[in-house]
Specification:
Number of strands: 16
Order of helices and strands: EHEEEHEEHEEEHEEEHEEHEHHEHH
Helix content: 25-40%
Distance between the termini: 30 Å
CATH superfamily: NAD(P)-binding Rossmann-like Domain
Largest sheet: 7 strands, parallel
Radius of gyration: 19 Å
Strand content: 15-25%
Oligomer: single chain
CATH architecture: 3-Layer(aba) Sandwich
Strand order of the largest sheet: 3-2-1-4-5-7-13
Structural class: alpha/beta
Length: about 300
């Protein structure tokens, strides 16, 4: 950790990742402010409306780090054309709003940690994906490419890190949110062949990695895309099966790919059936130590 407390501004602070992140940063002694879309309730909250009006550059003055986790949930189904546009605009427009404020701030932040996702790689079953692997194809890949480009437009002097987050395993949301209720009703299932690599990460490590990248001296030279995924790649079947085991429920069914596509359309391929064997090389080289190195242990911890 740094010796001196940092001033950190967080967008997307009320979400599944943002809420524990803000708590962890404050527990570590850092000064955290947040951007909100409602009326502020405290002096550390600032209202913004990304894509609708500019953000007052003074909000960024004095901030050492800006963390951008803003974006509509991709887990909200179905993906209508209107909602797909919201998925894209909520990420790209929010990032553009922050970058524009940086350009006009008297003292821009030295570090911009901006969200991205494993979806940037598309379906890559035969590739081992290092942090700098080229983007793939598909809706989420296109969104992430535009999202990262918006972040990389930050002014000179701002070090940009894009957080290519995998499938987050944690209580109250993330990858387990749709799996748990189905499994409790005895409908735990193998999805497709079950052999697609899911780039999982425990919520505790997702938060820990962001704190590390924001504050650790050993991470002070990291820039560009960073894979946020557990160190041991794992296929989807091992995760869905472990949920059933922990809930003591049957695991009898297989949902074929065509059935998933019939119900979820392109979201089935983008979220459940695509294979991404991501490895967190930059994160490990910067000195981060994972709390959970096995996906099964991360699932066990939730229950």
């Amino acid at each position: 950790m740094t010796e001196q407390p940092l001033s950190i501004l967080v967008a997307g602070a009320s979400g599944f990742i943002g809420t524990p992140l803000v708590r962890a940063l404050r527990d570590a002694g850092h000064h955290v402010s947040t951007l909100v879309r409602r009326e502020p309730h405290s002096p550390t909250e600032f209202r913004w409306a990304p894509g609708q009006r500019p953000l007052d550059p003074a909000v960024l003055d004095g901030a050492d780090v800006v963390v951008n986790l803003a974006g509509a949930s991709i887990g909200k189904l179905p993906w209508t054309e209107t909602y797909k546009q919201e998925i894209r605009s909520s990420r790209v427009d929010a990032t553009g709003t922050l970058v524009e404020a940086m350009r006009h701030a008297a003292t821009p932040p030295r570090l911009f940690l901006s969200g991205s996702a494993s979806g940037i790689y598309g379906d890559r079953p035969s590739d081992v994906l290092q942090d700098d692997a080229a983007p793939g194809s598909g809706f989420l890949a296109d969104v992430c490419r535009a999202w990262e480009a918006a972040a990389e437009a930050a002014p000179e002097g701002v070090r940009v890190v894009t957080l290519r987050t995998g499938i987050v395993i944690g209580e109250g949301g993330g990858a387990l949110a749709p799996l748990v209720p189905l499994t409790r009703f005895g409908l735990g299932s193998r999805l497709g062949t079950g052999g697609a690599f899911w780039p999982w990460i425990a919520l505790e490590d997702e938060v820990g990695a962001i704190v590390h990248l924001a504050t650790a001296p050993s991470a002070s030279e990291v820039r560009g895309p960073v894979n946020l995924a557990g160190p041991e790649p794992i296929v989807a079947d091992r995760i869905t099966r472990r949920v059933a085991e922990d809930l003591h429920r049957p695991y009898l069914f297989r949902l074929p790919a065509f059935a998933l596509r019939t119900v979820l359309r392109d979201a089935a391929d983008e979220m459940l059936l695509s294979s991404q064997q991501m490895v967190p090389t930059k994160l490990l080289e910067s000195g981060y130590t994972f709390r959970y190195t096995r996906a099964e242990d991360a699932v066990d911890a939730v229950f």
